[in-house]
Automatic annotation (TrEMBL):
PANTHER family: 7-TRANSMEMBRANE DOMAIN RECEPTOR C.ELEGANS, SEVEN TM RECEPTOR. This is G-protein coupled receptors family 1 profile domain-containing protein. Keywords: Membrane, Transmembrane, Transmembrane helix. SUPFAM superfamilies: Family A G protein-coupled receptor-like. InterPro entries: 7TM_GPCR_serpentine_rcpt_Str, GPCR_Rhodpsn_7TM. The chain crosses the membrane at residues 6-22, 34-56, 76-103, 124-148, 194-225, 246-270, 276-304. It is found in: Membrane.
Amino acid sequence: AYSYTTSTICCVSNVLLIYVLAVTQLTHVGPYRYLLLTFAVVDILVSLVHLLNIPATHMTEFGYIFFSYRFLHDSTAASVWASLSWVALFYQTFVLLAFHFVYRYVIMCSPGWLAWIQRRPWRNWLIIALGADVIFVGGILLTCLFSWTPNEFTRNVYAPILKEAYDIDLLGPNKPGYLGIVYWVLNEKGEKEWIMFSLLIIGWIIILFFSNAALIIFCTFKIIWELNESKVRNLAPATKRLQKQLFTTLLVQTIVPCLTSYTPMAMLFLVPLTGIGLGGIGTVLIMSTALFPMLDPYIVIFLISG
């Protein structure tokens, strides 16, 4: 019921936002509305893929396993690719947020070292967007493909856990697919032995996360500085108000998913490193990620008044 409710509200509200951006007063934001439209489309896709998968996560003291309830009776490949589709679209929001900040930074601050972008803006922005997707989303997907997809070791580790907790048979004839990682095991002496490959993988994920966050923070400070400069004070009141509204909207569009999506996902990655097993709370963390696509259109509609 939760997934159906959030997906329905998300689709309706984002379609409303698309309509507002296309035919009503928000056309005054200029080319930036195309970024907002892109965000609305991605929000809809994220919500639909969430509904398609009904994702769940079980967190143990040594790692976690992500699986899709709707694909438990399908083949390994179908389950894995369904999960990867959710991962790809979820991380697309990271890239899109950073892209928004870079766009506002270039437009507001006109840095000399990025002046080439505005010479042929449509082509150059498209190249930047595609390049960011290849680096960030592509990096995440490749990481999942080569380290979190099913193998005999993780299947045998998580099979008894999921059987006891959810009556899910990972060893069944169809070999259900999942994404899982094990950070450490107990050796013959009963001592904790860290799996270096898993630590390197999670380290790479953290690098991707923080490089994206660092870019957002850099652009934020530059834009705030620019908004306080005398040349911005000399702008027409309506133009200055619009720039501040766009920036405020972007900040809220970052803060809300930090609370509902990025912090829960960070907990998912990092808590098992502490040796604490949260069990089914992992599913609650995953479910919370469905809130932002539902709330995002209202942030835009109510904060950008023109």
